[in-house]
Amino acid sequence: MSGMTLSAASLYDRVQRVIPAIEWPVFSDDIDAILKLKRERNAVILAHNYQTPEIFHCVADIVGDSLALARKAMEVEADVIVLAGVHFMAETAKLLNPSKTVLIPDMRAGCSLADSITPQDIRLLRQRYPGVPVVTYVNTSAAVKAESDICCTSGNAKAVVESLGVPRVLMLPDEYLAQNIAKQTDVEIIAWKGHCEVHERFTPEDIREMRAAHPGVTVLAHPECPPEVVAEADFAGSTAAMSDYVGREKPARVVLVTECSMSDNVAVEHPDVEFIRPCNLCPHMKRITLGNIRSALERNEHAVTIDPTVAVRARLAVERMLAV
Ligand code: SF4
Questions:
Q1: From the CA of 283, how far away is ligand 1's center (Å)?
Q2: 185-214 residue pLDDT tens
Q3: Would you say the CB of residue 136 lies under 6 angstroms from ligand 1?
Q4: Residue 85 Cα: closest atom of ligand 1
Q5: Is there a smaller number of Cβ atoms within 10 Å at the N or the C end of the chain?
């Protein structure tokens, strides 16, 4: 999105299906201020698919899942990157484009998966499973990535695991993602006990109830959901894969079993598809607001820094993934 000719007034059309007109004045002042600040500071905003529509559709320059954001962060030429997402995403952007100022609008935007494992845990696992490569989900701190052989996302986990050419891998920290990938590959996968606090709350009964209440609905689930939930779905994939599925298959009715804002953001682009919206909110993603994006740009807060010795090793693990 180019900020040069846009204003909040011209942007409302994009989001009118998901933001009631009465709520729009709350957002428009911040949107105009952010568009201006982006030009003044030569900044771009990267927004995750779970960001609310006024961020995703009105101020973001680059949107996507964590894999897409990592790839695009590497190519950013602007001076400043604001990461509208959670802390590990900002760290990944900094790892891949270290000369840029990378800002996260709220330092408390964490992730239950990233919090579930420490570098020390990985060192102990390596002692217990000598020689077994460690594949780490990008939803981890840079310090944990630095202890890993290679990273993966939900979009490329199977390809990453199989790229190693070994019979057994440790796949950390998401237990459910590991179990879901294990069903698709001959490689033996040893999992950790981390869970996404958003996706672990869905149950197979939820899916059966949705099908009963909305006959003919197509159910798409994120692979961070428990395997019993994925088993009830018609399709499982990353947020990017779910979005592609809706565009390609054009189901009449669909439910995205994932974070709430995802449906709003995809619905904006598919007015002909009916979205059923039971969902769970990610409290970390929701810490990012237009207000704190604006103050991040005004005050240059909060700049992400990574210990240089950690950064070298963590970058290697991410770059190995991007090469797969
Ligand atoms: S949705 Fe889950 S995996 Fe994503 S940031 Fe929130 S807690 Fe972490």
A1: 8
A2: 999 999 999 999 999 999 999 999 999 999
A3: no
A4: 5
A5: C
